[in-house]
Amino acid sequence: MDILQEASNFENAKMSHMSTSDRVVASREAKRLILAINEIYKKTKDSELMDIMKRLTAKKKKIEIRLKGRPDSDI
Question: Which domain of life is it from (predicted)?
C-alpha cells in the first residue's frame, strides 16, 4: 500500500509559497493519487479509502481555486 503513504505525505505537505508551476504539479499529483486510490476502493469498498479520497479532493480543489482565481461576484 505504497500509494497510501504517498497520499499521506501529500496531505501533510505545506502548500504555502508555491509558484504557479508548483501548484499545477501538485494538482496533477493529487489527481493521480485519487485515481489510484479509487482503483483500490473499487475492489475493497473500504470506507477509510473513501475518506482519504475526500480529503485529497478537498486539498486539490483549494489548489485549483488558487490557480484559476476566485469567480467575481460583482457581475
Answer: Bacteria
Give the DSSP letter of residue 71.
P
Are 20 and 68 contacting, i.e. CB atoms less than 8 angstroms apart?
A: no
| CB atoms closer than 10 angstroms to residue 60 | 19
Instruction: Return the C-alpha cell found at 9.
Output: 505525505
Q: List, in order, residues 6 or more apart from 56 with CB less than 8 Å away.
A: 7, 10, 11, 30, 33, 34, 37
| Whole-structure pTM value | 0.81
Q: Which amino acid is at 17?
A: H
Is the predicted pLDDT of residue 12 greater than 90, yes or no?
Answer: no
So where are the chain's domains? Answer: 27-68
